[in-house]
Protein: Aminotransferase class V domain-containing protein
Amino acid sequence: MFESFNPTPRVLMGPGPSNVSPRVLGALARPTVGHLDPQFIGLMDEIKQLLQYAFCTKNEFTIALSAPGSAGMEACIVNLLEPNDKVIVCINGVFGNRLKESVERVGAQAIVVEDKWGTPVSVEKVADTLAAHPDAKALAFVHAETSTGTRSDAKSLCQLAKQYDVLTIVDAVTSLGGSELRVDEWGIDAIYSGSQKCLSCVPGISPVSFSDKAVETLKQRKTKVPSWFLDQSLVMDYWSGEGKRSYHHTAPVNSLYALHESLVILKQEGLEQAWQRHTQLHKTLHEGLSHLGINFLVDEAYRLPQLNSVIIPNHVNDAEVRATLLNKYNLEIGAGLGQLAGKTWRIGLMGTTAQEQNIALLLAALKDVLR
Ligand SMILES: *Cc1c(COP(=O)(O)O)cnc(C)c1O
Structure:
């Protein structure tokens, strides 16, 4: 016989999803209404405003895509790029590589700026590349590389792009809500994020925001957006238009209740306070890990507070430690990804998970397991 699925609760200290608070789970359980119900349209409007707050933007086109962060990435690429466009793509980890893949799949040309994993995107290299390719249409990079725990200088990179009138496409899946991010001030044209990292909502939604320039680029396209579902000119009419929303697809109604609640929680705490909390707790974690003799992969200046890549000590069995943490302590940490597989652990302190008590649990559990 089949029975209901009742997972054992875990402390989620990996690269996402992070722990979803009872408030957000409670919102998820409220009655489903129609996606064109006036009540729901009111909720969508509030989500737009709350996302504008979280992104620090006034962008009119700021929405929650009904799909995970990867779809947010594709949405930016397929809407803003056309075949043969030149795009400078920065790769310093797994997610930069995905940007390149995505750029090439629309028939655009990726000009790659590569940096060592665990180091930030080199502003100097990007400056040289822009000077060599002033005809590039866009610059795409990952703000917070979750595969390595590295923060790149989004502000300087966007300033450079502005000098060449180049669009900026930024992956903020892990940075939104966890570290300083200012879309308007930094001049970001297209940005995408995810619900399950520092917003601590359920997975499957991607907040996206386009500047007026990005929207204009979309309107001026010579070719149709190659994906019907991700065509944001169609999605725009679903997320806006006074009283005349047109059906595009059925939004994940209850997941949007959850997103709304997670954004209300962020607003109540205050965005800058949330950034501060992540930084503070990262310091606590760092101190505790140094007592255990565990070192970080990334230089202090570029470390992400919400994603801590640490080097697995010699003679330690990676998989066994993670399995013991999970089975004995109900604690999940992330494995290394790509070329860092088997070399690093990724300890997430994202959103709701970023709490003193979780750090204490992890440190005690690690001490026990490594002994
Ligand atoms: C998690 C993540 C993604 C992908 O998001 P999904 O919701 O898993 O599709 C993209 N970029 C970065 C930097 C991420 O951390």
